[in-house]
Amino acid sequence: MTLRQRLQLYFIMGSDDCLHAPEQVVEEALAGGITLFQFREKGARAHSDTATRALALELQQRCRRHDVPFVVNDDVELALAIGADGVHVGQQDESVAAIRARCPRNFIIGASAISREEAERASREGADYLGIGPVLATGSKADAERPIGLQGLADILPFTGGLPTVAIGGIDASCCARVMRTGVDGVAVISAISRAAAPRQAAAGLKSLTARQPAD
Ligand code: TZP
Ligand code: MG
Questions:
Q1: Residues lining ligand 1, judged by CB closer than 6 Å?
Q2: Most buried residue, 20, 93, 198, 211, by most Cβ within 10 Å?
Q3: What is the pTM of this model?
């Protein structure tokens, strides 16, 4: 499967995002068909360093059993130490160029972008994919910027240098099909799965809504 295909249903989660045990939520999300997982441990209830590493290893093993790539948010050292498949960085984190210079060639580097300029720079620096947003209002990121909307998303897509793209921010089953019609390769969600009463069913529903039809 190509990275572009892997972006179809990108689940992001840390312990603070979950209503149930993180291991259980990830297992259900995997059973529901997520195609990529990002470990993003932040917030008030986030674990300490030792516990973070232990949880990362536990979730990584579960992803491996389902052949789903495991990416770490922000923390390049943790990602390298545990042999993660890659890292995802925002604009405040280490630059894509610096990470590219010190990581194995097949290490996936994802970058966040909220504007044409950020998308162009990440692409120039060697990012493997772009996470664009927040598209809609989100309750899952304390310092989130103002949402760009579906039109804002569509306006950035021509400037991604052909990189695979995933939309993020406030996406759930009610808007997923509209988001996909902008031309992104997939959607990245936290709460639509992590806070769902039934994460497996939530993931499975999003999976079918993100499936490309032959005519697309
Ligand atoms: N980056 C931009 S929006 C966001 C991140 C990490 C949070 C997305 O969470 P949700 O619950 O899917 O809106
Ligand atoms: Mg970050």
A1: 12, 133-134, 138, 140-141, 144, 168-171, 189-192
A2: 93
A3: 0.97
Residue in 147, 141, 139, 136 with CA at minimum distance from that of residue 171:
136
* Number of domain units in the chain: 1
Q: Give the integer Cα–Cα distance in Å for 84 and 143.
A: 26
> Does some domain include residue 215?
no
**CB of 82 within 8 A of CB of 60?**
yes
Catalytic site includes residue 207: no
Residue 125, domain CATH: 3.20.20.70
| 41 marked as binding residue | yes
**Tens digit of each residue's pLDDT (9 = 90 or more) over 28-87:** 999 999 999 999 998 777 788 899 999 999 999 999 999 999 999 999 999 999 999 999
Neighbours of ion ligand 2 (CB under 5 A): 74, 90, 93
